[in-house]
Amino acid sequence: MTPKLRSARWFEGRDVPGFLHRTALRAEGLSAAATDGRPVIGICNSWSQLVNCNVHFRALADAVSRGVLRAGGVPLEFSTIALGEQLMKPTTMLYRNLMAMDVEECLRAYPLDAVLLLGGCDKTVPAQLLGAASADVPAIAVTGGPASPAVFRGRQLGVGTDLWRYTEELRAGSMSLEEYDELEAAASPSVGHCPEMGTASTMAALVEGLGMALPGSAAIPAVDARRYQTAETAGARAVDLAREGLRPSRVLTASAFDNAITLLLALGGSTNAVLHLLALAGRVGVELPLGRFDELARRTPLIANVRPAGEHLVEQLFHAGGIPAVMRELAPLLDLTAMTVTGRSVGETLPDRAATERSVVARLEEPVQGPGGLAVLHGTLAPDGAIIKPSVADARLLRHRGCALVFDDIDDLARRIDDPQLPVDGDSVLVLRHAGPRGGPGMPEWGQLPVPEKLLRHGIRDVVRISDARMSGTAFGTVVLHVAPEAAVGGPLALVRDGDPIVLDVDERRLDLDVSAEELTRRRGAWRQPPRAYDRGYGALYLDHVLQADQGCDFDFLRGRSERPDEEPLGVLRGWIGGW
User: Fold this and answer.
1) From residue 521, how far is each of 206, 382, 526 by CA, in Å?
2) Separation of alpha carbons 466 and 338, rounded Å
3) Which residue, of 67, 353, 364, 466, has the fewest CB within 10 Å?
């Protein structure tokens, strides 16, 4: 039986509220037919001129509207705050939960039968997913697509991965400032998000892996006409979702999360996705411990040869068959019965053809790298866990013992990292603290500490780095991230001192501070919590309620399914005014 449209609560009443709701749309030029039983589809648009990744979304929203109209729905576009990774300080992660709340409350409060989520830049996609999952209104996602690759010295570039490499060359003295200026001029030739498998491309892919987007939509380039054709098709599908009542709660199951994590590992995707998937699972009541990522990593090889773990860019992945081609190879590792927003299972949506280019998408039995591209570490330095991405690390450093060189915060790092007198060598372990969820605040992408200039000039390009921060999905190196608990709440990272031995053993999943328990107890007695970064507003709310990295940095009061996710918003008003 077709479920009753949610929007009917607003528009069908022959009373004062119904009158006011209908005239609100008539004032916008819509006819009476707009409220006469047609599904109302919200287009949640994160367009902003402050977010270059998303600046083409007005045209994408127009394409979505065409699809909604074609399928007999009423498209109503609305905006929320938008999060831009490059311009927003100290970090977009500070505001992911705020955007999620914005999306959730709009979906609850407005007469929407379904919503199409239009996101692209790193945190806009997870924020929209979090909000939609909590509101549990039928939803489908459309992402903005990767930007056109830059070309520098005859080579296609990613935005971040190659930037970090060339920046090291500049600091090492092997690249001139004039050449670096040429790189800047070439670096961003179009709209769209980072064209390598950074966080934005990773999250776009995982939306597909979760079943929340149309198959084949994630990797279409931002400037390709097929991006707009897919947006139109998704708009039409949103109307069907409204009529069918297919909600995110039916799609975002434990199987869907396992599928998405398996896809993340096969793509060599961003470590940021760990946080977003943990938070999303917490919203929908799916038990997802941090250790599950490690369990799945031990069986899942890297099969997508895409930077930073591989050679190519997302555009080449698209031409090789996109995410469906990757998932087809992964079929033996996936739950093919998991539901998707197409109304069909994952298995029913997989393509018949294999990848067209094996140099981009390898066979499962002949992978780019073997299993273990992501590892979850525990030990005396990370009692609640930390993560490392071995697929982009120096294999020689994955089993390492070295002396700590501690930076107390990002300002301390900036002051001293290139000091010629810095007491550092290739065996040192660089430690950055007070960069976690509360300490940053917001857990900025500071985890890829720069290799000190004095080491770069001696040809050393990687050292072990440890922090309670995040790292850009475009970055690489032997970098231990998300150390929990963080230093700002008294985690062991707060107690590390220069010269302390630190043991990293990825095979053993071990991260230990090799200092006696008695000494650590003495240090803890002298530890004092750092001052709060915010005393008012959203910042204060964030500090009071954000969870640690092993729980996805969501707010404690937003975890768990709503008991009444689609509660009646009009009851009090109707009861007061009555009918005609």
Assistant:
1) 43, 16, 9
2) 37
3) 353
**Can you give the pLDDT at residue 580?**
43
Q: In the block, which residue shows the tokens 């918003």?
A: 569
Given a cut of 70, is residue 577 above it in pLDDT? no
For residue 514, give Cα distances in angstroms to 18, 305, 381, 517, 518: 69, 37, 9, 9, 12
Q: Which amino acid is at 549?
A: A
Measure CA of the first residue to CA of the last residue in the chain; give whole Å: 30
As a whole number, mean pLDDT of residues 378-398 equals 97
Q: What is the pLDDT of residues 431-452, one digit of tens each?
A: 999 999 999 999 999 999 999 9
* Share of the chain residues as helix, strand and coil, in percent rounded to the nearest 5: 40, 15, 45
Alpha-carbon gap, residue 433 to 486, rounded angstroms: 8
Q: Structure tokens of 411?
A: 């300002």
Are the C-beta atoms of residues 147 and 75 closer than 8 Å to each other? no
Task: Report the distance separating Cα 364 and Cα 366, nearest Å.
Answer: 6
Q: What is the per-residue DSSP string for 25-79?
A: HHTTT--GGGGSSPPEEEEEE---TT-GGGTTHHHHHHHHHHHHHHTT-EEEEEE
Per-residue pLDDT tens over the stretch 40-74 = 999 999 999 999 999 999 999 999 999 999 999 99
How many angstroms separate the Cα of 318 from the Cα of each of 151, 167, 304, 461? 18, 28, 11, 31
In percent, the amount of the chain with pLDDT more than 70 equals 97
Distances in Å between the Cα of 195 and the Cα atoms of 54, 96, 117, 393 are 14, 22, 21, 21
**Buried (b) or exposed (e) across 460-475, using 16+ Cβ within 10 A?**
bebbbbbbbbbbbbbb
Please tell me the distance from the alpha carbon of residue 159 to that of residue 150, in angstroms, as a whole number: 8
**E strands in 433-571:** 464-467, 479-484, 501-505, 510-513
> What's the rounded Cα separation, in Å, for the pair 138 and 391?
37
Q: Strand 114-119 to strand 139-143: parallel, antiparallel, or no bridges (unpaired)?
A: parallel
**Single-letter amino acid, residue 336:** L
Of 241, 246, 251, 247, nearest in space to 71 by CA: 241
Residue 380 has pLDDT above 70, yes or no: yes
Residue showing tokens 């010269």: 499
HSE at residue 247, side-chain half, CA atoms within 13 A, is 19
**Would strands 429-432 and 464-467 be described as parallel, antiparallel, or unpaired?**
parallel
Q: How far apart, in whole angstroms, are the C-alpha atoms of residue 480 and residue 170?
A: 25
Q: Cα 7–106–568 angle (5° rounding)?
A: 45
φ, ψ at 140 (rounded to 5°): -145, 145
Question: What angle do helix axes 254-267 and 199-210 make, rounded to 10 degrees?
Answer: 140
Task: Name the band, by pLDDT with cuts 50, 70 and 90, for residue 164.
Answer: confident
> Within 10 A of 384 (CB to CB), how many other CB atoms are there?
16
Sign of CA dihedral 119, 445, 383, 263: positive
- The residue among 164, 261, 131, 146 whose CA lies nearest residue 200 is 146
* Model pLDDT, residue 565: 54
For the residues 239-246, what does the mean pLDDT come to?
A: 97
| Angle at CA of residue 51, ends 471 and 409, nearest 5° | 35
Distance CA(206)–CA(146), nearest Å, equals 14
Q: Is the pTM of this model over 0.85?
A: yes
Provide the CB-side half-sphere exposure for 347 (13 A, CA).
9
pLDDT at 1 over 80: no
Q: Give the residue ranges of DSSP H helices in 350-460.
A: 410-416, 453-456
